[in-house]
Specification:
Largest sheet: 7 strands, mixed
Number of strands: 17
CATH superfamily of the largest domain: Medium-chain alcohol dehydrogenases, catalytic domain
Shape: globular
Order of helices and strands: EEEHEEEHEEEHHEHEHEHEHEHEHEHE
Radius of gyration: 20 Å
Helix content: 10-25%
Number of helices: 11
Structural class: alpha/beta
CATH topology of the largest domain: Quinone Oxidoreductase, Chain A, domain 1
Strand content: 25-35%
Oligomer: single chain
CATH architecture of the largest domain: Alpha-Beta Complex
Length: about 350
């Protein structure tokens, strides 16, 4: 298969900074589109993968799965896009397309394993996939997304991970006008959960440990903020919520939130991946038919529906733009929660 080289930013090991490097991309096959990447969001998963926090990172690692750009080339069998179109690529670039999950447009749960935009198994060039911290990406058209032209393109990028990660549980648990939704944590995921839940007509509350987040949450559309370490405030929302979306990306105690769920309510984890040291206290679950669940991104169809919804309601992420050369400093700031609420890389800086 023919290939070409592009400039990228990646790391050679878990202890090394990200730096400029050359990577190979395949020439577009008949069903592929080639995208010049204009903006790429920065996700906590990027940092964790680069530093092998979850294990299994393949090096060199080029992160980035919140990609938006302009199509520069299409294969002869492409029917959904044309050269010059805006396009997005999220967390997946392939799946088996044959299993029960894929048949239900749930490629994120592909029973044979979906292919991650980075650190996945490259079915074309062997080796592993490289992400959006690069000049271009080549992707099968079935895993590309149409971007509403009325939205601010740079602020669209985080919708392709932070947006769909929170949209998918909102839709699965049937959030609608009048639903009572709470969000734990106000970061890249949390701020999108607030915006999207509010867009769906829900009454939205933020759980936070910091009173400093109150005004920000209200400005984003939350109806109320509950300080979760104030016992009187927690008691005031006992049995209130139909759905809690927990976006916290580190180990934490879920028990304080369980009694704030309504009968049949669900707390869904979308942030932390790993073992939780604090065990669940089961009486509130058993006595209220309350559930703890997990969720990860969404399929391509659902992601397109989310983007179309955002286009109709003018919903985008709150972002801070950075240059590609600032990514290592951005990672350190992310560890300190020093971003409101998502870094986005101006990929033109990679050409400098």
């Amino acid at each position: 298969m023919k290939t070409f080289n592009v400039k990228a930013y990646g790391t050679e090991s878990k202890d090394a900074d990200l730096k400029e490097m050359q990577i190979e991309r395949r020439e577009a096959t008949p069903k592929d589109i080639e995208i010049e990447i204009l903006y790429c969001g920065v996700c906590h998963s990027d940092l964790h993968t680069a530093r092998n926090d979850w294990g299994g990172t393949k090096y060199p690692s080029v992160p980035g799965h919140e990609i938006v750009g302009k199509i520069t080339k299409i294969g002869e069998e492409v029917t959904k896009f044309k050269v010059g179109d805006l396009a997005g690529v999220g967390c997946m670039v392939d799946s088996c397309k044959e299993c029960e999950s894929c048949a239900q447009d749930l490629e994120q749960y592909c029973m044979n394993g979906s292919t991650g935009t980075y650190n996945g198994i490259d079915k074309h060039l062997e080796g592993h996939t490289f992400g959006g911290y690069s000049e271009k990406v080549v992707v099968n058209e079935d895993f590309c997304l149409k971007i509403p032209e009325n939205l601010d393109l740079q602020a669209v990028a985080p919708l392709l991970c932070a947006g769909i990660t929170t949209w998918s549980p909102l839709k699965h648990w049937n959030v609608k006008e009048g639903s009572k939704v709470a969000v734990v944590g106000l970061g890249g995921l949390g701020h999108m959960a607030i915006k999207l839940a509010k867009g769906l007509g829900a009454e939205v509350t933020l759980f936070s440990r910091s009173p400093d987040k109150i005004q920000d949450a209200l400005d984003l559309g939350a109806d109320a903020v509950v300080i979760s370490n104030y016992e009187n405030e927690m008691e005031a929302v006992h049995g209130r919520f139909d759905l809690i979306i927990d976006t916290v990306p580190y180990d934490h105690d879920l028990n304080p939130y369980m009694s704030t769920l309504n009968i049949n309510g669900t707390l869904v984890l979308v942030g932390f991946i790993g073992k939780m040291d604090e065990g669940l206290f089961t009486p509130p679950m058993i006595l209220g038919r309350r559930s703890v669940a997990g969720s990860v991104i969404g399929g391509i169809k659902e992601t397109q529906e989310m983007l179309d919804f955002c286009g109709e309601h003018n919903i985008v992420s709150e972002i801070e733009m950075i240059k590609m050369q600032d990514i290592n400093a951005a990672y350190e700031r992310m560890l300190k929660s020093d971003v409101r609420y998502r870094f986005v890389i101006d990929m033109q800086s990679l050409k400098n």
